[in-house]
Write a structure and sequence with these properties.
DNA-binding, six-stranded mixed sheet, homodimer, alpha/beta
DNA sequence: CTGAAAGCGCTTACAG
DNA sequence: CTGAAAGCGCTTACAG
């Protein structure tokens, strides 16, 4: 079918070893044979077989990426960053959608192992003990993005969730709000749930506001959850003037619900989100939110992973800066 | 490092050929040896090396997917469908972000060839002659999704863009609108630009409305483009009561712009989008739009590709049904 | 039912 | 500077 290294060796009148040398820029051939080889390569439109190469090199130049949901706006942006950095370094990325399912995740880990990927990026979500064991057995580098773990050997790239939530709440307070509520994730979510709630409460406390009186509802990080939580909140605590939604989808849900209920944002209700997804700029008024540099996180995670693969040196975890993006959904109160 | 087939053969006291047979469910071994082999496999936690297998089988169980932008909501949903179908059939998917760049696309094609992927899905965008040639040289199955081409050997999976645009416009007319504008893609875009504009005009004509008087602006399929086009439209043709935006992002842009200008949607201006992205339900009022079954398109494209890979039989192109999703952005006019 | 051997398409000591 | 040969981890006729 396609030409192999043997074909070019024959056409160039040299051995396959020599062809391999010139193709890989290894020392040991004359300029003349180099030209002969390159001509043969061109004539046959030869392309090396990366599978054969991978078998001997024990490197596939491929990394696996596990997402709870590839199609979410959140994951897509991270994926974009990963893909970009990987491709620049000559790596391919195979995507895996775990659907937050343990069985499926384990299955993927097995497939990635069989396919001999050089490394794995695990995104947003808890790295279960079971996964960690499988990963250990694979004995390849792993890096976490938008999550972290208790395992010292696995570096992560994320934002400081506690501080980011703190800053969101402090921003609201600085704008004059006193009756503030939060719509977050599940309290038992140790990555994106609990730390943000704690950060929110800490900001309240630091500013002399009773942290336990502030309503904190669970919006499950999704739009529908944000809508439901907002509806309940507005019914139960109509005195609230501002809400911190710990995810942009939920924040948009709050805005939609407010609009449906005839409550003006930001005049009557201020909203600050979290993530800074692209859709934060697509609503009206545009959403004020605390930005995570998602694409950058993906890029950095991939860079760390590849560095680890190629140098064998351990990589440090990294906390990336967040930033509140002031847009149109927070008003100033006197 | 990891155990190989040799290790299990030795431990089980059989030849590697026999191990291979039991692992691949091929005929030719006794129940007793099967058990011995499986025990050895379990003890060594043996996992076959897919790279070695791929080298001899000439199959990698991997497909490549090319997107103009992996992180767009549009692409993500298609990717989700592809990934799902692929994983069910035991295939992995490597994602490539072409950024609509010719050089980059060619580079990816080369990488995918070197990595010996079994097939390729090319999404949304024109399949240039140059790409087609590269694909031919690879001699592997290709399927198009959300686009089509003039090449008879490449099946596609898409919606009928002309008809979908026609239906969007006809829906507006049925709701009593007479002064209708369109915000579409570039007129020279033969896939998603021109056909939708033609469908829009055809609907106008069929309903006795002068098709050439209707404003048609270019919003480049992006939010910002939708905003700009809407602003211009509202200034130049304030008599318009409804707009068909041939992409949800642009439709959301129209809604945002209208809101900013104090124009009520749908009371003063009706808007119908195209795609039915998740964000269509996340704005207020929720966006009426003509739905493309994106995930389903991805799923079907992957299914076709895999069928082609495994059976060698050609696959037919498929036009999937679209559907107008009535939500809150179109009012009825008398 | 089972094994020895060739071969997939490369890379890499080793020898000259 | 160059080639013959072994080997990466599998599968698959072929022979018994």
């Amino acid at each position: 079918m396609s030409a192999t290294i043997k074909d070019v060796a024959k056409l160039a009148g040299v051995s396959v070893a020599t062809v391999s040398r010139v193709l890989n820029d290894l020392p040991g051939y004359s300029e003349e044979t180099r030209i002969r080889v390159m001509n043969a390569v061109a004539e046959l439109r030869y392309q090396p077989n990366a599978i054969a190469r991978g078998l001997v090199n024990k490197r596939t130049q491929t990394i696996g990426v596990l997402f709870p949901s590839v199609s979410s706006a959140f994951s897509s942006e991270i994926l974009h960053g990963i893909e970009e950095a990987a491709q620049e370094q000559g790596y391919s990325v195979v995507v895996c959608n775990t659907a937050e399912d343990g069985k499926r995740t384990m299955k993927y880990l097995q497939v990635l192992r069989e396919k001999q990927v050089d490394g794995i990026i695990y995104s947003s979500g808890v790295l279960k003990e079971e996964y960690h064991q499988a990963l250990q057995a694979m004995a390849i580098p792993v890096v976490l993005v938008a999550t972290k773990s208790e395992y010292a050997d696995i570096p992560y790239v994320k934002v400081d969730d506690h501080q980011a939530a703190y800053d969101a709440c402090a921003y609201l307070i600085r704008r004059g709000h006193r009756r503030i509520a939060m719509i977050g994730g599940p309290a038992h979510d140790v990555i994106a749930g609990e730390p943000r709630i704690a950060g929110f409460r800490a900001a309240l406390a630091d500013h002399g506001l009773p942290p336990d009186e502030a309503p904190v509802l669970d919006g499950r990080f999704i739009f529908a959850g944000g809508c439901e939580a907002a509806e309940e909140l507005l019914r139960q605590a109509p005195e609230v003037t501002a809400v911190f939604a710990a995810g942009d989808e939920m924040a948009i849900g709050v805005i939609s619900t407010a609009a449906r209920l005839g409550i003006a944002v930001p005049a009557q209700l201020s909203v600050i989100g979290y993530d800074n997804l692209k859709l934060a700029e697509m609503c009206y008024p545009p959403l004020t939110t605390v930005a995570q540099p998602l694409a950058e996180m993906g890029r950095l995670a991939a860079a760390k992973l590849i560095a680890r693969i190629e140098t064998g040196q351990p990589e440090a975890s990294e906390i990336l800066p967040h930033q509140v993006m002031e847009r149109g959904t927070v008003s100033t109160r006197e």
